[in-house]
Design a protein that fits this description.
This protein starts with 17 loop residues before the first strand and ends in a 22-residue tail after the last helix. The longest helix has 40 residues, at 1386-1425. Strand 16 and strand 17 (279-282) form a beta hairpin. It is 39% helix and 20% strand. Strands 1, 2, 3, 4, 7, 8 and 9 form a 7-stranded mixed β-sheet that branches. With 1910 residues, the protein is of the alpha+beta class.
Amino acid sequence: MACGQAATGGHSCPEHQQSFQSSCYEFVGLQRSFLSAQAWCEWGGGHLAFIRNDETQQFLQKHMQPEQNWWIGLAPSFDNITLDTKGGINWLDGSDVIYSNWISKPVLETGCGYISTDSNSHWKMTSDCDKEFYFMCEFELGRSLSCVNHSTFLKCDSDQVIEIQRSFFGRRTPHYCRNDISTSLTSSQDQCSWDSVLDLVSERCNGQQVCLAMTDASSFGEPCPTLGSYLVVEYNCKYKASSIIDRRSADDSGKGAFDDRRNAETDSGELKIKRCSNTMVTSTGTSIVSGVTITCLNCDTASVAEKVKLSIGNKDCKKVYWYLEDKLDSDALNGCLGTGLKTMNLFKKDKNTVDIKTSKLRVVQGDYLVEVVCKEQDGTLVFGSTTILAYLLNRPSNPLLSIISDLLIEMKDTDQVTELREQLLSNICVALTNSSLIEQDRDVLMVANAMKNLVELETEVNSGAQVEGGCIVESISYSLASIDLSTANMSELGDAAQLIVESASHILQAFDSKKEKNIASYFVNGLDAVQSFMLANKTPDMEPAIITAPHISIYANRLSPQHIKQAFTIPDVNVTSATFSLPNLSSNALANIIQPVDVRMTNFLIDPWRDGLTLNSHVSGFSLTTPDGQSLPVEDLPLEIEILIPRPQADLNSTVLDLSSYSTMAINITSQNTTLVLKLEPSEELPLVLLLGYQDYPSDSNYVAKVTFPLEANSLVERYTWILKPSELAGDEGLYYLLVRPIVGPGVKSVNASLTITSITAQCIFWKQHKSEWNDSNCRVGPNTTASVTQCLCNHLTFFGSSFFVMPNTVDPSKSAELFSNFAQNPVVVCFIGAIFLAYILAAIWARRKDLQDKVKVKVTVLEDNDPFAEYRYLLKISTGHRIGASPSSRVVVMIQGTEGVCEPHHLTDPEKTVFERGAVDLFLLTTPYSLGELQSISLWHDNSGDHPAWYVNSVMVQDMETGEKRHFLCSAWLAADIDECTIERTFPVATDADLKGFTNLFFMKTTTDFCDGHIWYSVVSRPPSSNFTRVQRVSCCFSVLLCTMLTSIMFYGIPTDPSDQSMDMGQIELTWSQVMIGIQSSIIVFPVNLLIVGIFRQSRPREKKTKQKEKKKSKSQKAEKEKAFSSDLDKNNITAEFLIKDIQRIIYLFANAMRCSVPKLEKNLEKADINMLLSELHELIEQQHSTHANDPSSVYWIYTHHLLKQLQNMEGEVRLLGPSGFSRPGSYSQVLLQVQNIKRVLEGHIYAGSFDQHSHISSTTKDKKKSCWNGFPWWFVYVGWLLVAGTSVVSGYFTMLYGLKYGKDRSINWIISIAMSFTESLFFTQPVKVICFAIFFALVVKNINSDDDLVDSLLKKKATHSEGPDGLRLAKRDCMRSYYKPPPLSDIEKIKRNLAKQRKARGLIVEILVFLGFLWMLLVVAYGQRDSNAYYLTQHIRQSFEQDVSESMNYNDVFNWANHIILKNLFGEYPGFITDGNSKCVGSARLRQVRVKRDSCKIAKPMRDSVPDCNAPYSWDDEDMGSYDPDWQEPNSANGSVDTVWSYQSQSELRGYPVWGDIALYRGGGYVVDLGADKENASRKLQYLFDSTWLDMFTRAIFVEFTVYNANVNLFCLVTLMLERTAVGAFQYRSVIQSVRVYQSTGGFQSFLIASQVFYFLFVCYYMFVQGKLMKKQKWAYFKNKWNLLDLFIIILSWTTLSAIIKRTVLGDRDITYYQNNKDQFPSFQDTALADATLGYLLAFLVLLASVKLWHLLRLNPKLHLITASLQRAWKDISSFITVIGIVFVAYSLACNLIFGWKLYSYRSFLDAFKTIFNLQFGLFNYDEVLDSNPVLGALIITSCVIFLTFVILTLFVSVILEAFSEEQENHQPSEEQEYVDLIITKFLGLFGIKCKKKKADDTECLLTDDTH
């Protein structure tokens, strides 16, 4: 089947294939030979995978199993077929191998290619193509391959149809379809051709969605008769055309296809007709009516593949004319395109029944229209029509395959595949049942594959489809067993057998979910037939044949009778099957058997029988048959057959008993007919008596069963195993009690021993076929039964199963004393529960204290600055946010604005509690003289006082207490001078309904509410003070929930799971149905009772502590106390004239503001103010406003006059209380009193007669709010909640302790870890996620706004708006002159902002300095932690040891003498394996390596060619010799076949080396290598061999002695390279390169400190990344213009590079150590690790350098250093010019000296050395003597001129420029802005110690605006 995945053209891949580029790949986990693997792929329309690029190679490596070898489509080329190949190895299609991945290119171009996993997935060739490997198939998109007599399945998506592009038949390559080739590949190849069959395939498949193209040689011809042919089809998928006319015309191959019907017998009177839409007309235009029915007689049979038989029945016609649509008439088509006409040709007449050959209709693809015209006896013409569908023309010739093809076509055009699946399977079952057995191997394979595809979606296979599928499994299994294997393809039949078993496995899995019908008989019969096929032609006593699937495994083998004694099991990679161990059967079932015996095993992971017991184990069958299939009866054996049946793994349900006293345990039996197995493990072997009682404790006289241990048995396990059969158990189900009593001698009261008892229940049953039921007769449970395996002992063979029941974890509370006696051995759980109780007590104490504090917070604060006569009330509910620092220390002021006016500013404060705490909600009662109308906005500000004045206000709600209307203000803003918008005053408008119901508002409101109040755990800390659900109650609920959860957890802890349970795989998490049920059961146990407790506490009303009478008495006493306090307050304040003046001024001020007019100028000096003048001003102001508002009855003036009148009445009382003695002038008292009374009369006269009471409009509905009928539980319900808390907590804690004591210490610890992790995950992840998800749902769907009216009403009842004194006097406490009643002016705010900015930047500087110092400290620790000071001494010691007897110039003999004496002496020291003095271990072996140059690598000067015979150049990479030689550097002899590695070049990659720097050149890491070995004698012999063979000669350019040592004393590895370089003149020069590496990190405290330092260092780096990211976002491109920013960025990049180097070094070190441990006799290359270590050192060095440079930037705060930096910046232009001049002079002198002295002085041998020498000359570091000795005149001249020109002239001018710039900067220096921050820091720091600093100028420092200014 050609398939493809998804991407283009309508092709798609099946689920079991992987899509990549333009192909689908299937990784087949079956082992097949190369030809069988290719045949498997060809069966599906593909081939073995081709790897044409590296991307495909990587893709295949990713998906294949790395431990297996895989066939790929590589094979040798064969010439002379049709493809022009050049020989060698090609892909199977004959294309060249352009991309390759050979491990080594194959020498012999024969065999088959595969991917070898032991060579890192490289390619290999093997000549043994019969090896069985896994293989990978490639199915190219839109391309399909099919062998002869097979079919290819072409398919497009549902909305597309097939369009054939190319199609060829024949043979182009010898490698396709080779299973059918019987002759040699090289024979008769020239007889093959490659022919196009596009027309034939197109007519079958074009325009169809699905097409089954048969490869039939009779249709195509046979272009390759000897080797056989194959078909290749290439096609596209295109969308279905909307036109109903097929525009295609026939080509040459289609001409004459209808010649026979065109030449049919006709006469001159023959009817000529044309078809136009639904009307038929004759050639003369006469219309013909419909009246004939055409019937197809064989469309439902297979014969339709040859001809179509049509009939009109017994219609009485005088003449009959049959017409067939002509699809080849192009002229007719062109004429019909616009009119809908079709040309119909006469092909038969005067016949009621006609036959149409199918082959003639296949010429042009499509449906054919057939018409019949009947001329009745009266001459009337009637017609009928039918259509021959295209798919009927392409039916396969095989009847059975035709039916299946029809069913597949029926299924392809519908979306209701699930509904048709059962019907499709049913039809296939009927077709298989009613037809003969399938005889062709490919047909069986096709049906098996179709079957697997139909049932692999297990969830869509219903019960009916399961039965039909079982029927098909049985039928095709019979066909499989009946095929003649002598001519069959065994590979295809084996694949079919595998598919049959997999199909049965899928059906069994679907059957497990709902067992409605019995399918076991189908499976048993079908799998038995498959086993018969597996045993056919099998040789006795060979390896068994095994087929495995996810839920079914079968085994078949043929053995000699004497080999039947072994244990039989099915090895399966997925699960463990049952094991059958047979006794000696020679005297029973096999007594007269001489021929081999067939052994058959079947293993079901799921019970296939519908009826009977519910099994919890595998179902395994075992049978013996003769080779002809006759069953050998095995029953009534004298010796039992041992059957071991696996059962689910689980923790053992064990109980530990102390035998010092009588011990009992409870056992719960949950099923009937169950065997109880008790396995005892005593701490020492001692006699015991066990008594078993049913539903009561046993005694000596009352027991169910009794036994004495030890029993008589061979093993200790059997001696202490008690098996109780069902007949021995008194009751079927229920609770049993086991009493254990040790047998002791006389006088001994107790024994000091313990006993572990494991209880297991099991049942051994078998399937009784004739009764169709499970039975347990003649089977028993064996003593070797464990928690994982059930041992069954039976005397017969059939299908066996094990029904077992895992005991629930039970505990006997009556034995608490015995359990608690084990406390010393297992105190874990008891102490854990005790710690929880103790934690609860401490938490409850803390919660109680917080509850008492919360009581003070639950109140409505009546503002002190309310006007005592203002009676219009507004309730303010202000919510402070949860952000850090949201609570302000400043004074907050509010002002409300409405349509009718603006209220006075009010200071929001409460003397009894702290307001505006973080996350708190505060209630304030604000009064106004009149209604403000419809509220519009609210203004909030504060005075910025205190240490933390900033305030984050979340929201404000204002409720009109008279009308009940609420207005919300969504603030969510900071009032702060340095945060957000940097303002301390903001005005917020009223929120609309859309704002309130917006997602953001609802989400955050719901989240806050749920976390603070709804979430039981989080609300303990964040509980709203207004909630009746106290913190103590919340802590108690948490305590109860925790203990209940722990109890349910420990109850179900360790319950085993059934492996047959369906599971949900979620990555690494697997969840079984049993675990889900345990979770549901635990929730059912815990949730209801705790929900009840929480509901009781939350819904209970608070208790009313006093009766109404007591409250009345209390109110009277409180009133008297208030009056007394008020009188005392009056006496204390001694009301004076100044008090009256302030009161009158307040009245004038408030009246003027309410009328929105200018306030009269008031005298601030109270001593100068006159009461009479103030009263006169008030009177004038009243008259003025009356005249203004006289004609406006809706004016505020008329409402305010009532309020003003009350104030004057109160003032009159104050004047009377003051009396005449309170006035300084006589007569003033009466004058003032008269003025007040006159103003009162004026006001009374001004009151508008029609004025209304401002409260009269309050609706009765507002006043008389209906309360809900239910207002919570009575207060005493709280005691019920406490009782439930105590009960659940004590019971849960007690039983949890009992379970813990029973489980043992280790299991208890594991449980505690499990419950702790579960609780932590739930608390910090699961529950917050649930809260957030519910908040999202609430905000998106519910959109409800919470209200707390009941709370507000209850609080308002407890508050009065004002208090009256004697005679009804009321004192006003508002001081209108307070500064905070007005927002701070802009100048003060700007001043505040500047000061705060300075403070913030000063703090930032301090943080920056401290962070950098910490960063630098960690960096230095990390840098120096990577180095060891001992490394220097170690390298010096090794260097000095090997430098002995080394001269400056050595020849070949000197080199060998040095190697024999010094190298070998030090390499193989006194202690074996150690070098020199025995402190350093030699790691692996040492090796010699040399690099050479090629012969004749340089050209000789022409005049000297006669004198000098040859020339060899110095070393260079181009001239390096990389050839292979025979000994003595002779040219290799090709006949020899092998080359010694000593004389063969090995590349750098092979040696795992790196280039090495020498004094002369840079040498490659490859060369000619000799390993010296592990002992001195062997190394000496090798050196002698090299000397004798002239291994070193004139072409040698460098010799390297390489070895690695490890010194455990300092924990260092040393990589030693001793180098002898040979110059072109012939002498060797010595050089050593030694590098130390720490591969193993040391242990101890410093190492831990170093690791911690590395962690902290990278935390600092992450912090710097965050800071630089913010800075980059803020500055954008300007960020990269600052050099210090670039420095920070470079430090960050280098830091992460350093981390990569640390990881790289660690990984490489582990790799190299592993290589050494596996190859200790070879040279281990640590070069990669050394390179990574060196790179790490360089990176750390540069990091320290850059960090030190950054320290300069931080010291800019010092004025002197800043002056130096500024001076350098000022002089930079001049400095840069001088630097250029100096550089030019240096280069000039360096070049001159190199040219003059370089040929004879070492200091000048190169330009760089000369430059270094001239540079040192400026500092006096110079060797004058060597220059003067070389050339006295010229040397003196150069040195003198250089010193004078450079030192005395240029450098002096350079310093002068810097000094001049410094002087200018010193005169014009401007302090930096940061200097002010430094001064501020110093001032603050000194202020901590009480030291005051002097200010240079008065304006240098600005005073901060603090609380003292107010």
